[in-house]
Amino acid sequence: MSHTSPLHSCPRPACGGHTALHRPVATPARTPERRVLPRPCRAVLHGHRTPADVYLLAQQVAEVLVGRRAPEALRDRVTVPVREELRRLRGAVPCRLAPRLVRVFHQPSGDSVEASAVIGCGMRSRAFAFRAHREEGRWVCTSLETDGLRR
Fold first, then answer.
1. How confident is the model at residue 34 (pLDDT cuts 50, 70, 90)?
2. Are 147 and 127 in contact (CB under 8 A)?
3. Spatial CA neighbour of 113 closest among 83, 85, 134, 137
4. Three-state SS string across 41-54, please?
5. What is the arithmetic mean of pLDDT over 80-100?
6. With 83 labelled, which of 20, 109, 133, 138 sits at a CA distance of 20 to 30 A?
7. What is the DSSP letter of 23?
8. Tens of pLDDT along 40-89?
9. What is the mean pLDDT of the chain?
10. pTM of the model
């Protein structure tokens, strides 16, 4: 039912044909649901930001997965099994532009950290996760998991 104005003359015969003005009744079919959105947390969480060197390691791994960096360039930052896995997966993520990390999540655990990252490449996104240990002042990736990438 379409109305040209919010107020219009009543077409019902009970009104006696005079021009009684009325508004349509708000029914569930006409009234949109009112959604209550949760308020964002205003408190700053202690340590919720991913450390810069973990983020950098994730960016470098993403560049290898896209094919813009050689796995050998990370020889001091990854273990031998991870480097072999990166060699196998190099270029497995099709991306015309340089990879952009959409999100990086981390979970610290003593002297190690588990992180997951989402790579944004145009219309698709891919994810990978890794575990890194602190050795001699830098993070070294000791295990790597991808979202089913195959080369």
1. low
2. yes
3. 134
4. CCCCCCCCCCCHHH
5. 89
6. 109
7. -
8. 655 544 556 888 999 999 999 999 999 999 999 999 999 999 999 999 99
9. 79
10. 0.66
What the block records as the tokens of 10 is 């009543």
Residue 100 has a CB neighbour count (10 Å cut-off) of 14
Tokens representing 120 are 């944004």
pLDDT over threshold 60, residue 18: no
Token pair in block for residue 106:
């981390």
DSSP 8-state code for residue 91: T
- 3 state SS of 135: strand
Cα angle value 110/115/116 (rounded, 5°): 165
The helix/strand/coil state of 134 is strand
Partnered with residue 132 across adjacent β-strands are: 113, 141
68 SS3 class: coil
Q: State the DSSP string of 68-91.
A: SS-GGGGTTTB-HHHHHHHHHHTT
Residue among 113, 147, 115 at smallest CA distance from 133: 113
- CA 86 – CA 115 distance, rounded (Å): 17
Token pair of 14 as six digits: 């009970």
Question: Any idea which of 3-17, 50-64, 137-151 has the lowest mean pLDDT?
Answer: 3-17
